[in-house]
Amino acid sequence: MKETHLKSFKLKQAPFLFFIVLGLIWGVAVLEPAQGQPAVKSSESRSQTASPLKVLSYDLQYGQIGNKLLFGNSVFHLYFDQTSGMWEGLEIHTINVFTNAYRTVDFNIDGKSAWDTYSWKFKGSDVGLEPDRKSSRLRLSFEGYEKQPSGIATEPIYRFAVQFKVASDSPRLERSAELTLLKDKGTQGTHFEGFTFVLPEVSLGSPEQCQVVVPGPFDSRNYIPSPSSVSSLEGRDVSFLNAPEAGFGIMMVSTHVGGMTLGTWMDTGGEVDYASSLKVKAGKLTLRNHDNRFYLLRAGQTVFSDTHIVHVGVNGSDCLMTYREMVEKRMPVATNSPAWVKEAVILEAMPQYYLDGFKGLEARLAFYKDIGFNTLYLMPHWKGGYSPIDPMVVDPRLGKTNELKSLVVKAHELGMKVLFDMVIHGFDEKSTIPQDRPGMFIRDEKGELVTHPTWKSITPDWANRGYENYLFELVTHDVKEYGIDGYRVDAATFKGPNWDPTLPYPAYRAGSAAPDLLKNIIATLRESNSNAVLLSEVFGPLYHGSCDLVQDNMTMGPQVFLEQLSSNLVTASHYKEYLSDTSDLLPRGTKRVFFARNHDTSWFYHFNGYTRPFLALEAVHSFFGVPEVFAGDPKTKGKPSPDEGPEVWKYYKLLFEARRKYPELVFGNVQLRNIVSSNPNVIAGMRSYKGQSTLVIVSLSSKPEKVSVQLGGPEPMTMFFQQFKWVDALKSTSLNDKVDAKLNNITVEPYQVVLGR
Asked: What is 341-555+591-630's CATH topology?
């Protein structure tokens, strides 16, 4: 295809200037519509022989060569078959990214691929300028027919269109789709389950040269070391956390040849989520995004996809920055959070793990306060726990209502905030609430109540006004009865659709309305307590706009990392890369809560104990975010507890004391990516506040290490090693004698935590 590729038209290329101007004049004459006519030309009316490339506007072109339609700008050249409408090639900066024919966009009907289930006819293409005349779009139209033994039906069932959009000199390609159901297939309606956008068999060079990066947590099911060569992923088919609520959904592939990074993601505005996955087969990388827009379609109804984005940058940071710009515009961070959230040091405690329940926990509060905790996150106190029977009724096995009240009062007397758990994923099958309020719940195709895939609890419809009112009742009850300071919101990841045909809103809203629901809840809370907060368990970019604090939901992540670290599969630099990537993807101003273990770690994975590398990782968490620590399982559960050894609580106490001592480690701006450690076994970063900066160095090595630090470039930060005072964060002892000012490095002991100031 090289001999037929589109040439870029740029004004700075003087030899082509005359032809550009001539083409612009000709293009305007052809494309400028007569009064009332669209500014498009249908492919069905064009000759199938070669024709000149048309200049729509500066840098925007289309044309025909043989049976191919060409469309693009100076970055992207797209090729389509004129007869079938199949996407036959994508060229970026003269690199053939893929050259095999592929369906443009797929969609799912009743759990099946529409392209595989129906017969399709290509109806033509339209090309034209957008009103701003700075971007152009190509629209491909299709009709779908029922397959029959004798052939295909004569009347179409679907009308389907795919649109590609580029702007002048822009490194961004956008894809979107729309679908119209022309006639009903049955009395129950048609179950539409979203659009699928694929970049097939992507190649920017050899499999060894191409590097894949998928920012996200260390999950044993889908972690990919950053970066990984395409060849190292051969045979893998990996699905990632859904975005934007549980993950990020961005996938990147880079090549050093030409210095190019291709990033892909979807812009759903947070209204729905999407699933990202990749597959490597025979050295070819396929990237997929499934847009989870669920509808119960009726004849004449049209549904629209979200926008699929392909961005080309000079490096991964460029793609991350572009992604963040989208997030900050479409899902801005909450700006009205109480001031105390940055100072929070959170203790997670499960009352049934204490002898005498509420009373036993209350007896430990003064001890926890002395360690440095100022916020108590109390796990479920009601019947049913995480599969609630009634969230307003105290579980009698834990104590009485007045004992829970006493626990909250004691915490407040000690200066501690108290957060209750809020479980919004469902109710236990033993609960009477689904029978008492049946309209609040999601129904399947048969009209039956839907249960949560993990907890088997009966799932509420988050868009249902009755359920919202129920939560208002719960909040009002808890604030009046106990005077709490907010909630930790459990498992708010998007759920499935409600197929109830009487709904006044699309099916997907039932499972994706949680952000709006939480915004209304926090508004209700603050009517009684202006300093109340919401802490979200789910850590994607979405919930930073509806909650004040967001956990990095790393149920198993730190344990997976530490296990791979001990097996020499990763280094500290991989964890630093994770922290840097996620920091760059989230909107600025987020309040991130870090933990290395919570209650789910043992429930869904396993916990290997309070080892030295584990505690060093907790130091990283404490100095670069809001720390959260699990009070632990009781010894009778056979799982490691911090109560088993006094040195564990002593470590946390010294850590929190160091954090309080330096305001920049609480309030300061976090710098990670541009603070570069010369030693892959050592994590380095900086926090700055009111003109004061502190450099944090944490060793994850079992032996002494020498490390120098660079500030986003090749030159060492000489002033750090010559002018800073260096201390052991946990011992407050000077480490200036460990500094070699001439070589600009410092020697750190195994798992040592060092502060330079």
From this structure: TIM Barrel (3.20.20)
